Amino acid sequence: MKRREFGKFAASGVLGLLLAGNMAPRAFAQKAGRDQLTLAYQLDVATWDPNARVRPNQIELLKCVFAQPLEYDSQSRLQPSLVTRYEWLDDTATTLGLDFRDDVLFHNGDRFTSEDFKFTFQDRQSEQDVQLRFIWNTLDRIETPSPTRAVMHFKSPMPTAPEFLAFTGGFVVPKNYFQKVGRDEFVRKPIGAGPYKLVEYQQDSRIVLEAFDEYFGGAAQIRRVVILIVKDPTARVAALEAGQVNLAVNLPLREAERLRKRPGLVAAVTPTVDNVLINLVNRDAFADKNVRLAMHHAIDKQALVKALFNGIPKATHTLAPPGTPSYDPDYVFPYDPERSKALLAASGYGPDKPCKIRFYTTKGINPNDFEMARAITQMWTRVGFEVDLQPIDPPVYQAKAAAGELDGCILWLGGNATGDPELTSGYALNPKKPFSVWRSDDCYEKLAPLLVEADYTRRIKGYKAFHIWAVEQGYSLPLMQGVASIVHSAEPVGYTPYASGWVIPYAWRPNA
Amino acid sequence: MLLGLFKSLWRIGLLVFIALVVFVVLRLLPADPVGMMLPPGATEADRAELNRTLGLDRPMLVQFTIWLGKALHGDLGTSIASGLPVTERILHALPTTLQLVALGLLGGAILGVGAGLLAFRFRKTPIESGVQVANSLAISIPEFLWAILLILGVGIGLQWLPFLGPIDGAYSVQRITGFLLLDTLLVGDWAAFASVCAHLALPVLALSLGVAPPLMRIAHASLVDTYAEDYVAAARLRGLGENRILMRHALKNAALPTVAMLGLQAGSLIGGTLLIETIFGFPGIGSLMVQSLGVHDLFMIQGLALTYAVTVQIMNTLADAALYALNPRLRLQ
Questions:
Q1: Is A244 on the interface with B (CB under 8 A)?
Q2: 3-state secondary structure string, B92-139?
Q3: pLDDT tens digits for range A370-399
Q4: Side by side, which strands form the sheet with A224-229?
Q5: Which of A259, A420, B145, B310 sits 20 to 30 Å CA-CA off B90?
Q6: Whether the predicted interface score ipTM is above 0.85
Q7: B-chain residues within 8 Å CB-CB of A243?
Q8: Is B89's Cβ below 8 Å from some Cβ in A?
Q9: Residues of B in contact with A53 (CB under 8 A)
Q10: What is the pTM of this model?
């Protein structure tokens, strides 16, 4: 072959391959029908050892492959899963009895028993790199009187044990398989009892799942799920527009609203059980109760909700947002800028002597975080504050909070899929926790009994009262519910939004 | 020989210095990687224990010495975020980046030198002006913006090419070398190979458009200088055609500055993959770095910084070798 002919041949070949490649995604997109789903997700799993890491929380991805003892439904209500029934066997929240299903199979055909449960929650605590132990460090031992019965004994009260059995890191692994292959091989070929089997995993690129027909909850209607890891939100938006994915998560709200108008796309911007709030520190000007309350009275939450989130989330007035057990719909903290000015004046501040505060915010981590902080800064400035607004990265915030060196208040998204108050105010206002922000003895005095209260109703009632008290002291300024911003194609239908913001492909019911 | 040895030692010293700087800077930052891993209910004892487990409670110099000792044996530590070995994760991601960089350089060289040749061949015509205007436009747009423009125009607007991930979700390719182009060829899956080519087209073009403009300018300027040499006039007197003089005689002599520039471009191009990989969803070391920075994964960031430094040094060495091979005067020296 002459050089010139080869050149022509090569050019045609490359063009042909590109065109062939071009056809492939279109053909694939057409194939994505009622039983196949392609998602653009922002985060990969840290590891396929589901007990190894509890943060960052990739519970949605892990829930596809692994089953949990209990689980949260779309309304964030605790539901049976592997556990059919649970009850406290004492009144000190130190002995928890659990009954299991007897029809659960792992993906390799092994039958789930209480020994698997014990192995996961007790035996694996001896592994140094398994962070599940940081949640279950009060666990003393687990008894397994029968394959379908376990009793958890705690060294100190753990009234939130049922909630944590449905939360981060609480995934059951098959004891025999895990011990036979070892941890490294398990991470390469994970076996769970969840609704999907992992059939292919390309780190930081894609996860391919296929429905597990013997899943104890019934086989998934979406038979094949391809999860593409797309970290850039712009790329996730573009993928939807080009029809390369069926669903994209965590999109900028403006983009979600724009995509809503495109034919064939549906925007699901829904409120979550998370709480956007401002955490205060016990120092400088913030040590003055008048200043803290003036800050709160000056914030027009309705205006923020309307301007930044199209009125979708509800404004929150206590530390429990709507949809969580300790939510109190009757309590409202009023927006009252005049009262705010009066409170500042009472503490000696005025137009000639503004109250100087530092205000931290994340930028681009949560929807409209920086924009919201800027709007709040304006509101505060109007009543007599001089605000030094500064963006902060979460690792820096964590370091400063742990060292007690945070010198300003911070706009923060209090994420809590369980909705249980202990996981939010029970930690954020607990001075004995390393990452709490507001630290004062009066908080701990009120919290301490709640942390060991075994009676659920009394505990929740206690938190309701605690939340109102904390807000009236100005220890934390709740703003609004969190927002999940998801856009998906009209087909397959049946997408189910979760109050926790989770995207659970198993919950899609296109054939319903 | 001695010069070569000196250069090698200098490069090793430079790498150790870079590693030390990155190590110290990361530890001086007021950020807490442990805090990003613990559940909010963790106690102070949990935090102290995790710090101890990760060795973060030791003096900085001790930490660095231990890390360096292990790094010399190929062990870059364990990722704080995932608990997986850093070396394994980097080796898994590196082929994706190298493939992008190699193709980006190749594309940039073809575009840049091609445009330089075109402009020179048709000098003092509207074609030269057109190429120079296009070049000025290209040089003022950064790679990541090209990426977004290409996605909007070619990916979404025309829907000609895919722009998400390294291969279509319908294909599964057994990992052999990690270089997807090569792996698809090795397993003989032509459809998957075509898919990889299509997925590479836009990110490679975005990278190439960042590489090409300076190359075009250098190639063009070098050709102008070369054409002032006597041997070009002599070739004309011998009756050789313009195309032959350009391709056979002038281009080879004008290539040296262009190759030197390409070596420099290679170093900066690998940094450019950070955003390109993130935008196109490629699982390379750039994407890994962005992810690790977000959670302050100390060991992963250190490992990646060292990998970047080593890769840039290797590319500089290759550029030196190419210059050495092309220029007989360097060999005589």
A1: yes
A2: HHHHHHHHHHHHHHHHHHHHHHHHHHHHHHCCCCHHHHHHHHHHHHHH
A3: 999 999 999 999 999 999 999 988 878 877
A4: A196-202, A206-211, A224-229, A36-41, A247-248, A476-489, A265-279, A409-414, A355-361, A385-391
A5: B145
A6: no
A7: 159
A8: yes
A9: 37, 81-83
A10: 0.81
